[in-house]
Design a protein that fits this description.
alpha/beta, Rossmann fold, 7-stranded mixed sheet, 3-stranded antiparallel sheet, 13 strands, about 20% helix, globular
Length: about 240
Amino acid sequence: MSSIEQVRNKSWYNGPDFVYRKREGRKRETLTVHVTASASPLKAVPLSSPVLSLIEKASQKQVAVSRTLDFGAGCWLRYVEPILTKLPETELHVVEYEEAFSGSAAATYLGLKSRFTHWSPGEFADVDESFDLILVVNVLNTIPETLHHQQIFRFLSKRLNPLGWLAVYQRVWAQNDNLPTAIPYGEGWIIPLQRQDACTYRAKTGAQWFNAEARGARLRPLQLGIPMTSGNTIFKVWEKPV
């Protein structure tokens, strides 16, 4: 009988490495889940069409989008340019671990950092700020702890201004998407990475979970008429009532 338990970094903002201990009989193994490791090493990966359409819709809102948050912006900060292009008057903030900006991604960060305010997740957890638009693109599906998913969603919901939008776009993983080396844990799988002494995580969190959390946060779903591009992704937008 095997078991996995978390042994370090029990808060969602303490990372990016989350350490686990796997026990299988008398054998013990330490697994390190690096929550930024799921980001593609290639800068030119196509942007999500639904997310781009959402940014366009936000630019047409009657209530101005004065402050935007890209939560978990990723090592390549891929949505910074579209946000600033379509919402030139917005004050942009991004949340990402500093460790994500390594290697060739560091040059991208240095080239853009004057155009937004950057917080690490730990800094953001202590910030009392609110936003008109919050983007969460392929973030919660990289975090191993379901409790952390809930804490983040509720935290972000509280950071919305009245009539603000919270948008989630992410891959929904299934068992047959994984190699045999995948290790079941929580609502997904820990995935050992080749050529790295670390793992990533793939969550199978879907629409039902998000709908329940949004109801609990008293957010109302928006139907913006934006078509989905894939059956294995979730794209949801909610508005905070006045």
